[in-house]
Design brief:
InterPro entries: WH-like_DNA-bd_sf (IPR036388), WH_DNA-bd_sf (IPR036390). This protein is mainly alpha-helical and 151 residues long. It has two domains: 43 residues; 84 residues, Arc Repressor Mutant, subunit A (Orthogonal Bundle). It is built from six helices and two strands; from the N terminus they run H-H-H-H-H-H-E-E. It has a two-stranded antiparallel sheet with strand order 1-2. Helix 1 crosses helix 3, helix 4 packs across helix 6 and helix 5 crosses helix 6. The longest helix is centred in the middle third of the chain and has 19 residues. The chain starts with 14 loop residues before the first helix and ends in a 9-residue tail after the last strand. The mean pLDDT is 81.
Length: 151
Amino acid sequence: MVTSVPRAAKKRVTPKERASRKEQTAQLRNLGITDPALIGDRLGVHARTVQRYLRELEGDVDRRVILYPEIKPQVLEHLRRYPHLRLPAYQLARVLQVSERSGKTVKRALRSLEREGLVRHEIGTRKEGDYSRAVRVILWSLAEQGQPDGQ
C-alpha cells in the first residue's frame, strides 16, 4: 500500500516577509553562494522561489507587472463595448487574444477591477449539449460604476 505524505498548507507571505527574503538572498549571493537550492534551504523556500528572487535582483521585472497595465484597460474596454454580456474569464482571454499562459492575468485583472468597483461577478451555469450536465462558472460583467459617462 502506498501512502502519501501530507503537504503543509501554503502560508500567504506578506510583502514585508518577501522583501526580507529577497534581501537575504542578495546577501547570500554576495557571500558567494549562488546555488538556488542551497539558498532555498537556508531561507526555507523552494529553489524556484530563489531563482525568481535572483532574476528580480538582476533587474528582470516580474512578467505580471508588464502585462497588468496592458490587459486591464483591454478588459474594461471590451466590457464597456458589450455591457449587456456576462462572460467567463477564459472567454474574455480568448476574445482579447491573450495567450493561454496569461489567462490567469485576465482573472487577476478582473479581480482588481472588481475591487475598484468597475466590474462585478456572479455565479452562473453553462451547459454544452443536451446530455451534459450544467457546470457552475463565474461570469463577469460591467458594474454600474464602470459605465462610461453619459450612458
